[in-house]
Design brief:
- This protein has helices at 10-20, 28-35, 37-65, 70-77, 80-114, 126-134, 137-153, 162-186, 213-227, 230-239, 251-289, 297-301, 303-306, 309-350, 380-385, 437-457, 462-470, 472-488, 495-531.
- The protein is mainly α.
- Helix content is 64%, strand content 0%.
- Helix 3 (37-65) crosses helix 9 (213-227).
- It is globular and about 65 Å long.
């Protein structure tokens, strides 16, 4: 028996990074300007660690329950109310993120086009003047959305985006490199650029620490939002292939455990890479502009007036990264919306009087999805009380307990989604939740098109990041994983498990209470900033508003 080298899964790491990296990176220099360098870096490291912990909890819950969608795991472990809360949070989070991404693309495209002579306001050429009169930010946003963003959001498979996700990671990496170079050559602190005369007025010591506690609270949801990727980890985990070196006798269980180990390596490599890039962009962006740091760092570079070729290229790369990340938010939102619609249709078809609650049976702590092969599905109590049982207490022995609504993988038979636990299943009736091509197109158009409309009405992204990080991201990323952990270890008995189970329950309580507290505080601060003149949107560093 010898130890073999672990396989590297660049495609899955790239998928995870692409789901994490995005427009949220643009506000990190502004977040560090609020927290100071010391607290900013510590918060980035802490957020990365907590993100890894929460993903590990979600993946372990998937393995234990043998369910591979976030909604399924939530209903099985916490109850139907958690499933409903998650559905709302997923829709709010993914929709808000999509809005922020479209706004970010609009800002980048607007600066890019205005940097050319054909769309420059000061150009006196008649042809250029005519194009300028036809041009506006809203039209270019609509055109770019229709050509690039909407077609990508029609993808059904996460794997289908793998070829693009590597480009997204490279795009943010190029932005980080450009920001570092610009900070060294032009920044206030480095004293090497033409603007170094401002350095004398910069108190470096004041940049190390936050000015107030509430500045940290305001910055925290921006950082949390930047690391949010939990809505996609179940799909990435399901699509993994187990290591070929697995030779355990129980292939089904060994495959899940092997995939969990692989996902653990993917999570750590991916999140550490994202954290490193975030520290670089946040630190050097702040050092570049100090107190003048805008909530969108690209606005500080003023490419429409400076015509800095490096930053123009970086802006184009960021636009590409945001476009790649956009469908990762439309995809889970579409799955959730599809399930809500299907549940409503079945209620209309069968009527509320015939709805049966599966989880209302006595002596069964966890609902059996859709009453499928109930005789073959042992209850949780029977598993816990059976001295000879060797199955995980949270493992439910259903042949294929997956809902493949959006075709995550190719499986011939499916049982109903856990969110359908109130739906009646009659003899001989099959449940097919695969979207037809027309319905798939219309749902995608509804979500993506609505995000475009809202984005056209919102001028900035910092408020969106703050609200999403303080509300939906807190629930999805921390509160629900904490509840998973508390529920998983609540019934564990035995002296050998008491110490570890207590630690796990304390960790779960920390995630729930900490996520709730920071979510409430940061959301209140963000909303208060909308009405406070002191925290109103800053004057544009390039001279606009």
């Amino acid at each position: 028996h010898h130890r073999q080298c672990a396989r590297i899964h660049p495609g899955s790491i790239s998928n995870l990074c692409s789901a994490t990296l995005g427009a949220g990176a643009l506000s990190l220099p502004y977040a560090i300007s609020l927290t100071g360098i010391v607290f900013g870096i510590l918060l980035l490291i802490f957020s990365a660690y907590i993100t890894i912990v929460s993903i590990d909890i979600i993946i372990d819950s998937c393995r234990r329950t043998k369910l591979f969608q976030y909604e399924d795991v939530s209903v099985r472990l916490v109850g139907p109310a958690a499933g409903r809360a998650l559905e709302v949070s997923l829709l709010v989070f993914c929709f808000g993120t999509a809005v922020a991404y479209i706004v970010a693309v609009g800002d980048i495209l607007d600066q890019g086009f205005r940097s050319t002579r054909y769309f420059s306001e000061s150009d006196t050429d008649s042809e250029a003047s005519g194009l300028f009169k036809l041009y506006n930010r809203e039209r270019i946003m609509i055109l770019f959305w229709g050509i690039c963003m909407f077609p990508l959001s029609l993808q059904r498979h996460v794997e289908a985006l793998e070829r693009f996700s590597s480009w997204g990671v490279l795009s943010i990496s190029f932005l980080v490199m450009a920001a570092v170079i610009h900070s060294i050559t032009h920044g206030d602190i480095m004293e090497m650029g033409n603007d170094s005369q401002r350095t004398r007025s910069t108190d470096i010591s004041s940049m190390l620490w936050p000015k107030s506690f509430w500045d940290v609270v305001q910055a925290f949801p921006i950082i949390i939002f930047a690391f949010s990727c939990q809505v996609n980890v179940c799909a990435i985990y399901e699509e993994l292939s187990p290591d070929q070196t697995t030779n355990a006798p129980n292939n089904e269980i060994s495959e899940l455990e092997s995939k969990q180990r692989i996902m653990g390596r993917i999570t750590r490599n991916g999140i550490i890479l994202c954290m490193s890039l975030y520290i670089c962009i946040g630190l050097f962006g702040f050092l570049d502009f100090s107190d003048d740091t805008d909530d969108n760092i690209l606005n500080n570079y003023c490419i429409q007036t400076t015509h800095d070729h490096l930053m123009m290229a970086a802006s184009a790369f960021v636009a590409a990264a945001v476009v790649v990340a956009f469908p990762f938010n439309i995809l889970p939102a579409r799955v959730t919306l599809r399930l809500i619609l299907e549940r409503f249709r079945r209620r209309q078809k069968f009527g509320t009087s015939r709805l049966c609650r599966v989880n209302s049976r006595p002596n069964d702590d966890y609902a059996t999805p859709g009453e499928v092969d109930e005789a073959a599905v042992p209850s949780l109590n029977s598993l816990q009380n059976d001295d000879e049982a060797t199955v995980d207490p949270l493992y439910v022995g259903v042949t294929d307990p997956l809902l493949d609504e959006d075709e995550f993988g190719d499986r011939p038979h499916f049982i109903p989604h856990m969110s359908m636990e109130e739906m009646p299943i009659t003899d001989g009736e099959s449940v097919h939740l695969d979207s037809s091509p027309v319905e798939h197109f219309l749902l995608t158009l509804l979500l993506s098109g609505s995000a475009l409309i809202v984005a056209l009405l919102i001028p900035g992204i910092s408020v969106v990041f703050g609200l999403m990080g303080g509300t939906a991201a807190s629930i999805i990323s921390f509160i629900l994983p904490g509840l998973f952990l508390m529920e998983t270890y609540s019934g564990v008995t035995g002296e050998e498990n008491s110490r570890s189970s207590k630690k796990m329950k304390l960790l779960g309580q920390f995630l729930v209470l900490g996520g709730s507290l920071m979510g409430v505080l940061s959301t209140g601060v963000t909303i208060n900033g909308l009405f406070s003149p002191k925290n109103s949107p800053m004057v544009h560093v390039c001279g606009g508003t």
